[in-house]
Design a protein that fits this description.
The chain folds into 3 domains: about 150 residues, no CATH class; about 120 residues, NAD(P)-binding Rossmann-like Domain (Rossmann fold), CATH 3.40.50.720; about 160 residues, Dihydrodipicolinate Reductase, domain 2. Helix content is about 35%, strand content about 20%. The chain is built from 17 helices and 16 strands. The strands form 3 sheets. Strands 10-11-12-9-13-14-15-16 form an 8-stranded mixed sheet. It has a 5-stranded parallel sheet with strand order 5-4-6-7-8, with helices on both faces. The protein has a 3-stranded antiparallel sheet with strand order 2-1-3, with no helix packed on it. The relative contact order is 0.11.
């Protein structure tokens, strides 16, 4: 880009630079401002024509003197709020231009609609503007940070570096098949095989092209061991992997006692290895956006959190889950207890209703409710096993004195925000936010690979994992 276009930098070139040339430079350049609205100043009409979508955005280099003066003048003349992006919140993406633009459009049309002032026309090459005409025109400046974080959470971007050898200790869990497939197709991981002696598991993977290996081979060759065995074996298999000095991805629930999980946390710290618990919605962009709204105070004082996660189970699945007092609250409710506790902390009191209401002749707690009481907030979690087509009816909702954030459906997430007063990026009205395509498990495997390569901690701390596990066991009357 020539000197005339120096004030506005090609965001796609910056993404590529951050990924392939100099990661630090890419992050520095992405400490940026997003500008959307009716008009914008640039001398690089070709750039505008190529990248300005109907709502439009620019990324400006804050280290450039002209950009700094431009933003200062924008605040003075247009009386807009300018928010700088903290580039440390996200790594470089590595999207191709068209892929990034396609991912950006649906999210930005929802996210930025509140900020746009004036017509939503496309710029053309003959439209010349000076700084004064731009600054005097109606426009708005919005923070791009939440949008970028959500795009990153949904992205399938892999990190560069040698592939990390991963193997599976067990593959009978319902999440195992998809995780094995993702590991096999990943450019981050090299799948060395599965250790599982069960004939039913071997038949399920018979045509997958995945080899079955001995426990000795798994413990010797793998750098990461994913524990996807039956729930009652989770803690024992994770302990074997950690004792062998391996990083561990541990399917939830991680154990059926607090002491067993505390032992795993201690062992991971002692061995200086990562222990990632596989709650499947930790990278769900809808849930994370709702949590973001609550943490930033945009919803006002939070007084209630509600979540429902139902399913329907086969006879065999019922038998496995019935082994645990918490039943479906232990197996499924854990997924939504996780974000509740990470938002609100340790509950002061937990009251549970673990009922068997199904027609089946078993002991499964198949119709369950847990009420978590905090100092000024209640959380109500429900989970049952008798709802056909349950996936579309699962939801996660946070209610505050200024409004609510509801995620329904959770997959593919749609966020419904309804505020009395405008706050953060949201208007004082009911609004619906959609996200780029989201697939569970993808981002957590990407995060694990990045953390291993960069020798850094995981996003969720061991202390948070312990708090979630304690609350889960109290909700299941298994503490």
């Amino acid at each position: 880009m020539g000197a005339g276009g120096r004030h506005f930098l090609d965001p796609f070139a910056m993404l590529r630079r951050g990924r392939t040339e100099n990661h630090n430079v890419g992050l520095r350049l992405f400490e940026a401002l997003a500008v959307v609205g009716k008009t914008a100043f640039t001398r690089n009409a070709q750039f505008v024509n190529r990248f300005f979508h109907p709502f439009g955005f620019f990324v400006a280099d804050p280290d450039d003197f002209g950009a700094r003066m431009f933003c200062r003048k924008a605040q003075q003349v247009a009386h807009v709020k300018v928010i700088k992006i903290d580039a440390r919140n996200f790594p470089a993406f590595g999207f191709h231009d068209a892929e990034f633009l396609a991912a950006l459009r649906p999210a930005s049309q929802q996210y930025f609609s509140t900020f746009v002032i004036g017509s939503r026309h496309r710029f053309d090459q003959n439209r010349g503007m000076n700084r004064r005409s731009f600054l005097e025109a109606g426009f708005a400046v919005a923070s791009l940070t939440p949008l970028v974080q959500r795009l990153h959470a949904a992205a399938t971007t892999q990190t560069s570096g040698p592939r990390i050898k991963i193997g599976f200790m067990g593959a009978s869990h319902s999440h195992a098949f998809e995780k094995v497939r993702l590991a096999k197709e990943s450019t981050d991981f090299e799948l060395i095989g599965i250790h599982d002696a069960a004939e039913a598991v071997r038949q399920r993977f018979a045509t997958s092209g995945v080899r079955f290996i001995s426990q000795e081979t798994l413990l010797n060759e793998a750098e990461v061991i994913a524990v996807e065995s039956a729930v009652q074996d989770h803690a024992r298999h994770a302990e074997l992997a950690l004792l062998a000095g391996k990083h561990v991805h541990l399917e939830k629930p991680p154990s059926d006692s607090l002491a067993a999980f505390q032992k795993l946390i201690h062992l991971a710290r002692e061995k200086q290895r990562l222990l990632q618990v596989g709650y499947m919605w930790r990278f769900n962009p809808g849930i994370n956006a709702a949590l973001e709204a609550a943490r930033n105070g945009w919803l006002g004082n939070v007084y209630l959190v509600r979540a429902t996660i139902n399913t329907s189970l086969s006879a065999g699945q019922r038998r496995e889950v019935a082994q645990f007092r918490g039943g479906t609250m232990f197996e499924l409710g854990s997924h939504v207890i996780d974000p509740v506790v990470r938002l609100l902390g340790r509950p002061e009191k937990v009251t549970s209703f673990l009922n068997h209401h199904g027609d089946e002749d078993d002991r499964l707690a198949d119709n369950t409710v847990a009420v978590l009481e905090f100092s000024k907030t209640l959380a109500i979690i429900t989970s049952a096993t008798m709802q056909p087509g349950a996936g579309a009816h699962r939801f996660f909702e946070i209610l505050g004195a200024n409004g609510s954030a509801l995620v329904k459906p959770i997959e593919q997430p749609v966020l419904h925000v309804d505020l009395a007063k405008a706050a953060g990026p949201y208007a004082a009205k009911a609004q619906m936010i959609t996200f780029p395509p989201y697939k569970r498990y993808v981002a957590e495997l990407v995060e694990l690979a990045q953390a291993i390569r960069q020798a850094r901690p995981l996003v969720v701390t061991p202390q948070e994992d312990l708090a979630v596990q304690e609350a889960l066991l109290r909700a299941c009357e298994m503490n």
